[in-house]
Amino acid sequence: MNAPNLIILGPQGSGKTTQAELLAKKFGFALLGAGDVLREIAQEDTVLGRSVRRTINVEGRLVAPELISKVIQEKVGTVPKDQGLILDGYPRSLAQFELFKKFWPRAARGDYQVVFIELPDEEAVNRLTKRVRPDDTPAAIRTRLQSFYAETMPMIRAMEADGQMPHIDGAQPIEEVHRKIVANLNFP
Ligand code: AMP
């Protein structure tokens, strides 16, 4: 049997990375965070590094779907087949989902499950303004929320039409969100 694969979705501030980390630790899964991977690239003093840095920190926009898909595809290829995998922050748009669906079968890791952590905007903004990341300026927070509704929500609808997607209330305490995710997913 294949090891489980999980895509964790939710707006910024929903706690999806916190939850992804808890799950990775509890089950020994590999965790691929799109934002983390991009922040690593952004540190490089190269044309690509500078361009990614500008997109993330100054503009708060998404990097090109081909770029993030290629990077994630490469990283997925490094995860042993018998180890579970969590994707945090990817795919994030219909274009990315299309690219994902092309490369995923080639990774030969079997099916994937999807979970969606929901959170109202006011609470998301509240949480993010308390975080101290260079891209958490009020303008960038607003741009990222708009991008979530404009680009990620249509993809979430498309994924929902493809298969099951439990919705979890992200306004609850971390432990409670974690418990509900585990209860709603099918992990061995
Ligand atoms: P995050 O850590 O998930 O909040 O991501 C931080 C920033 O990285 C985002 O605001 C985007 O600029 C970029 N980013 C993260 N994930 C993706 C993705 N799947 N596609 C494009 N850009 C992304």
SSE ordering: EHEHHHEHEHHEH
Overall residue-averaged pLDDT value: 94
Going across the major beta sheet, what is the strand order?
2-3-1-4-5
Specify the CATH homologous superfamily: P-loop containing nucleotide triphosphate hydrolases
Give a list of the ligands: adenosine monophosphate
- Name the CATH architecture: 3-Layer(aba) Sandwich
* Rg over alpha carbons: 16 Å
Tell me the major beta sheet: 5 strands, parallel
Class by SSE composition: alpha/beta
Shape: globular
Distance between the termini: 10 Å
CATH topology: Rossmann fold
Count of DSSP E strands? Answer: 5
pLDDT < 50 stretches:
none
| Helix percent band | 55-70%
Protein architecture, described:
The protein has helices spanning 16-27, 34-42, 47-59, 65-77, 94-107, 121-128, 138-162, 174-184, and strands at residues 5-9, 30-33, 85-88, 113-118, 167-169. By secondary structure, the chain is of the alpha/beta class. It has one domain: 3-Layer(aba) Sandwich (Rossmann fold). A five-stranded parallel beta sheet has the order 2-3-1-4-5, with helices on both faces. Helix 1 packs across helix 8 (174-184) and helix 4 (65-77) packs parallel to helix 5 (94-107). The longest helix is centred in the C-terminal third of the chain and has 25 residues, at 138-162. The model has no long low-confidence stretch (mean pLDDT 94). Bound molecules: adenosine monophosphate. Adenosine monophosphate is lined by residues 12, 34-35, 38, 55-56, 60-63, 68, 89-90, 92, 96, 135, 144. Adenosine monophosphate (AMP) binds at residues 12, 34-35, 38, 55-56, 60-63, 68, 89-90, 92, 96, 135, 144.
